[in-house]
Write a structure and sequence with these properties.
By secondary structure, the protein is mainly alpha-helical. The chain is built from six helices and two strands; from the N terminus they run αααααββα. It has one domain: Four Helix Bundle (Hemerythrin (Met), subunit A).
Protein backbone atom coordinates (compact mmCIF):
# COMPACT_ATOMS: atom_id res chain seq x y z
CA UNK A 1 0.00 0.00 0.00
CA UNK A 2 1.40 3.39 -0.91
CA UNK A 3 1.42 6.49 1.27
CA UNK A 4 -1.49 8.09 -0.61
CA UNK A 5 -3.68 5.03 0.05
CA UNK A 6 -2.70 5.09 3.72
CA UNK A 7 -3.68 8.76 3.98
CA UNK A 8 -7.02 8.03 2.29
CA UNK A 9 -7.75 5.18 4.73
CA UNK A 10 -6.60 7.36 7.63
CA UNK A 11 -8.88 10.18 6.49
CA UNK A 12 -11.81 7.74 6.38
CA UNK A 13 -11.20 6.46 9.92
CA UNK A 14 -10.60 10.01 11.22
CA UNK A 15 -13.88 11.15 9.66
CA UNK A 16 -15.60 8.23 11.38
CA UNK A 17 -14.18 9.37 14.74
CA UNK A 18 -15.23 12.97 14.03
CA UNK A 19 -18.75 11.85 13.10
CA UNK A 20 -19.03 9.72 16.26
CA UNK A 21 -17.68 12.62 18.36
CA UNK A 22 -20.54 14.88 17.25
CA UNK A 23 -23.07 12.43 18.70
CA UNK A 24 -21.57 12.37 22.20
CA UNK A 25 -22.38 14.72 25.03
CA UNK A 26 -19.50 15.85 27.20
CA UNK A 27 -20.92 13.68 29.98
CA UNK A 28 -20.75 10.61 27.71
CA UNK A 29 -17.17 11.45 26.72
CA UNK A 30 -16.11 11.59 30.39
CA UNK A 31 -17.99 8.51 31.61
CA UNK A 32 -15.77 5.56 32.54
CA UNK A 33 -17.22 2.03 32.60
CA UNK A 34 -15.15 1.35 35.74
CA UNK A 35 -11.98 2.52 37.51
CA UNK A 36 -9.79 0.28 35.34
CA UNK A 37 -10.97 1.49 31.94
CA UNK A 38 -10.70 4.74 30.01
CA UNK A 39 -13.58 6.96 29.03
CA UNK A 40 -14.34 7.53 25.35
CA UNK A 41 -12.72 10.96 25.69
CA UNK A 42 -9.54 9.46 27.14
CA UNK A 43 -9.42 6.99 24.25
CA UNK A 44 -9.69 9.88 21.77
CA UNK A 45 -6.87 11.72 23.57
CA UNK A 46 -4.78 8.54 23.53
CA UNK A 47 -5.11 8.32 19.75
CA UNK A 48 -4.25 11.99 19.27
CA UNK A 49 -1.34 12.05 21.72
CA UNK A 50 0.24 8.77 20.63
CA UNK A 51 0.05 9.88 16.99
CA UNK A 52 1.45 13.35 17.66
CA UNK A 53 4.15 12.56 20.17
CA UNK A 54 5.18 8.96 19.58
CA UNK A 55 4.38 7.94 16.02
CA UNK A 56 4.77 11.25 14.15
CA UNK A 57 7.71 12.03 16.44
CA UNK A 58 9.36 8.78 15.36
CA UNK A 59 8.81 9.66 11.69
CA UNK A 60 10.51 13.00 12.33
CA UNK A 61 13.44 11.22 14.01
CA UNK A 62 13.77 8.97 10.96
CA UNK A 63 13.67 12.05 8.71
CA UNK A 64 16.35 13.91 10.66
CA UNK A 65 18.61 10.95 11.45
CA UNK A 66 20.82 11.36 14.49
CA UNK A 67 21.26 9.58 17.82
CA UNK A 68 17.68 8.32 18.20
CA UNK A 69 17.88 6.53 14.86
CA UNK A 70 19.29 3.09 14.25
CA UNK A 71 21.10 2.65 10.97
CA UNK A 72 21.91 -0.96 11.83
CA UNK A 73 18.99 -2.34 9.88
CA UNK A 74 15.25 -2.65 9.91
CA UNK A 75 14.75 -5.64 12.15
CA UNK A 76 11.19 -6.02 13.35
CA UNK A 77 10.18 -8.23 16.26
CA UNK A 78 8.03 -11.30 15.62
CA UNK A 79 5.00 -9.30 16.74
CA UNK A 80 5.96 -6.47 14.37
CA UNK A 81 6.39 -8.88 11.47
CA UNK A 82 2.97 -10.42 12.17
CA UNK A 83 1.23 -7.03 12.45
CA UNK A 84 2.67 -5.80 9.16
CA UNK A 85 1.96 -9.10 7.38
CA UNK A 86 -1.66 -8.92 8.59
CA UNK A 87 -2.01 -5.19 7.92
CA UNK A 88 -3.66 -4.57 11.27
CA UNK A 89 -3.19 -4.85 14.98
CA UNK A 90 -4.67 -8.01 16.49
CA UNK A 91 -8.26 -7.53 17.76
CA UNK A 92 -7.28 -8.00 21.40
CA UNK A 93 -7.54 -5.64 24.35
CA UNK A 94 -4.17 -4.33 25.46
CA UNK A 95 -4.04 -3.59 29.16
CA UNK A 96 -1.27 -1.49 30.61
CA UNK A 97 -1.02 -0.43 34.24
CA UNK A 98 -2.39 3.04 34.90
CA UNK A 99 0.40 5.60 35.03
CA UNK A 100 0.75 9.37 34.61
CA UNK A 101 2.95 8.81 31.52
CA UNK A 102 0.49 6.53 29.76
CA UNK A 103 -3.03 7.17 31.05
CA UNK A 104 -4.56 10.13 29.20
CA UNK A 105 -6.27 12.87 31.16
CA UNK A 106 -9.95 13.47 30.63
CA UNK A 107 -10.59 15.84 27.70
CA UNK A 108 -11.43 19.46 28.39
CA UNK A 109 -13.90 19.81 25.52
CA UNK A 110 -15.20 18.25 22.33
CA UNK A 111 -13.36 21.00 20.45
CA UNK A 112 -10.06 19.80 21.95
CA UNK A 113 -10.73 16.33 20.55
CA UNK A 114 -11.99 17.58 17.18
CA UNK A 115 -9.01 19.91 16.78
CA UNK A 116 -6.59 17.15 17.79
CA UNK A 117 -8.00 14.67 15.26
CA UNK A 118 -7.90 17.29 12.51
CA UNK A 119 -4.33 18.28 13.46
CA UNK A 120 -3.10 14.68 13.14
CA UNK A 121 -4.90 14.27 9.80
CA UNK A 122 -3.32 17.50 8.54
CA UNK A 123 0.15 16.30 9.59
CA UNK A 124 -0.41 12.97 7.82
CA UNK A 125 -1.44 14.78 4.61
CA UNK A 126 1.62 17.04 4.84
CA UNK A 127 3.96 14.08 5.36
CA UNK A 128 2.57 11.91 2.58
CA UNK A 129 4.40 13.55 -0.36
CA UNK A 130 7.80 13.56 1.40
CA UNK A 131 7.60 10.15 3.08
CA UNK A 132 9.45 8.46 0.21
CA UNK A 133 12.40 10.83 0.65
CA UNK A 134 13.12 9.61 4.20
CA UNK A 135 15.96 7.05 4.13
CA UNK A 136 14.57 3.53 4.63
CA UNK A 137 17.67 2.57 6.62
CA UNK A 138 16.75 5.17 9.26
CA UNK A 139 14.68 3.28 11.83
CA UNK A 140 13.31 4.03 15.28
CA UNK A 141 12.38 1.30 17.76
CA UNK A 142 8.74 0.66 18.60
CA UNK A 143 8.27 -0.87 22.09
CA UNK A 144 6.58 -4.00 20.71
CA UNK A 145 7.24 -4.07 16.95
CA UNK A 146 11.01 -3.53 16.84
CA UNK A 147 12.79 -1.19 14.44
CA UNK A 148 10.42 0.65 12.08
CA UNK A 149 11.05 2.90 9.10
CA UNK A 150 9.26 6.23 8.66
CA UNK A 151 6.77 4.61 6.25
CA UNK A 152 6.08 1.82 8.76
CA UNK A 153 5.46 4.37 11.53
CA UNK A 154 3.09 6.13 9.10
CA UNK A 155 1.19 2.85 8.60
CA UNK A 156 1.09 2.25 12.37
CA UNK A 157 -0.85 5.49 12.89
CA UNK A 158 -3.66 4.32 10.60
CA UNK A 159 -3.62 0.78 12.05
CA UNK A 160 -3.74 2.18 15.61
CA UNK A 161 -6.76 4.37 14.86
CA UNK A 162 -8.52 1.44 13.20
CA UNK A 163 -7.67 -0.85 16.14
CA UNK A 164 -9.35 1.51 18.63
CA UNK A 165 -12.66 1.36 16.74
CA UNK A 166 -13.21 -1.90 18.66
CA UNK A 167 -12.77 -0.07 21.95
CA UNK A 168 -15.02 2.78 20.82
CA UNK A 169 -17.81 0.35 19.93
CA UNK A 170 -17.41 -1.45 23.26
CA UNK A 171 -17.45 1.81 25.25
CA UNK A 172 -20.52 3.04 23.40
CA UNK A 173 -22.28 -0.05 24.71
Amino acid sequence: MNAKEIVNKFEDVTNHYLHELEGFTMEQLLQKPNDEEWSIGQMYLHLIQSARYMQLGSIEKCRQGGPAVSEAGTEKSEIGQAVFAQGSLPPVRVKVPASPEYTPAQPESKEQLRDGLIHVLTQMKELEPILGEIPAHHTVAHPAFGLLTAKEWFVVIEMHYRHHLLQLNRLKG
